[in-house]
Amino acid sequence: MLKKIIAVLLVLILSVAILSGCSSAGKKGRNDILGTWTVSKFEEQNASNVILSLQAGLLGMLFSPGNTIEFINHNKVTIMMNSMEYQWLDKNKIQLGSDEGGDVPIAFDVEINKDIMIFTSSVANITFVKGEKLPDNLIESDKSSEESNIFTNDEMNDLINNNDQLREENDQLKEEKQRLQEENERYKSVVDARELITVDHDIDEKFSNAYGIDENPIVYGMEFSINSVGEGTEFNGRIVEQGSLVYIDFKYNNNSIEDLYLSAFTMTLVEKDGTTYQPHFQRKDGIARNDKLLSDKKYLFNINGEDFLAPRFSDEGSVVFNVPSLSDSYLLQVEYGVQDVAYIRIK
Q1: Which end of the chain is more exposed for a tag (fewer CB within 10 A), N or C?
Q2: Are strands 124-130 and 276-277 parallel, antiparallel or unpaired?
Q3: Distances (CA, A) of 110 to 178, 234, 266
Q4: What residue segments make up the domains of the chain, in order of their start?
Q5: What is the gyration radius of the CA atoms in the chain, in angstroms?
Q6: Is the fold of 2-151 the same as that of 203-345?
Q7: Edge to edge, what strands does the sheet with 330-336 contain?
Q8: Which CATH architecture has domain 2-151?
Q9: How far is CA 133 from CA 36, 129, 294, in A?
């Protein structure tokens, strides 16, 4: 029971003055403490907050008036039928519990005057009377002290049970934290690899480190997101003469603090075998290079008209690629000159 009570203390008090972090070598014992002592009075110090009040209440259960403590010899003590070690830290300071044992050490200043012993800490003062029971003149004060205790036995049992449950939940949270940390490390390794990819990397590296179609890469301050991807043999009512078309609707947003020139950004379609295709549309007016396909949509590659996008502004565009036959894997390469590049797996 003592170990569970002290365990609750440890959970509620992370760094309390009464908990001894590390002890010095044991001093020579005092003979006047040997024997059985009965708690006659438990006084809570003025608690400055709820936690200190709880600490005092828990100690009050351990040293409730009428409870006994027996100092068997110079290093063994029994409290509530539990045996533990103790030692003197100095002439007037005692530590109950061992740093190396299963108990959490508790330190008190000690004053002994014949048959009266007083333990003092920053949380509570405890008065003991020599012997196994209280004198008749102290029984009444014993009852009043018990009534003032902030915890009943049932409440104490509830605290212990709740402590066990909190430990289980804490273990689960630790496992979840570990899982999230591992997942974060894996994600960081992927992100780092994406940032290091260049046009000169192997095609397999480009595919394995590409962004997903639902992710938004940033290329030289411009954020790109894919709205839709389509395939077919016609676009805007015009039928392609050879092969098929891959068309991509996208949005772009200037996340930088300066104007970005749109003509510096290029898009390229990349197949799994490394084959690349340049877009049909490279002008804002939608005129195709071979004048076979026309569109009234706006495109990223602005040669005529405005050639920049102001900070925090966004726009939408489409890009169309003419391929000899449709493939089952494509990357969209978005590049800013030779300074920055990102790959988006669109299929």
Answers
A1: N
A2: unpaired
A3: 45, 94, 81
A4: 2-151, 203-345
A5: 38
A6: no
A7: 276-277, 265-271, 330-336, 340-345
A8: Beta Barrel (2.40)
A9: 9, 8, 103
Identify the residue whose tokens are 């008749």. Answer: 136
Residue 194: pLDDT over 50: yes
Span 162-178, pLDDT tens digits: 767 777 888 888 888 88
Instruction: Give Cβ neighbours of residue 167 (< 8 Å, ≥ 6 apart).
Output: 11
Instruction: Give the type of residue at 284.
Output: K
- The answer on pLDDT for 216 being more than 60 is yes
Tens of pLDDT along 19-57?
333 444 344 568 899 999 999 999 888 766 666 677 777
Q: Are 244 and 323 in contact (CB under 8 A)?
A: yes
SS3 (DSSP) at 184: helix
- The closest of 270, 281, 280, 274 to 347, measured between CA atoms, is 270
Count CB-CB contacts under 10 A for residue 207: 15
How far apart, in whole angstroms, are the C-alpha atoms of residue 58 and residue 83? 19
Angle between helical axes of 153-196 and 50-62 (0-180°, round to 10): 130
* SS3 labels along 95-114: EECCCCCCCCCEEEEEEEEC
Geometric angle at alpha carbon 148, from 118 and 137, rounded to 5°: 55
Task: Pick the most confident of 240-244, 261-265, 341-345.
Answer: 341-345
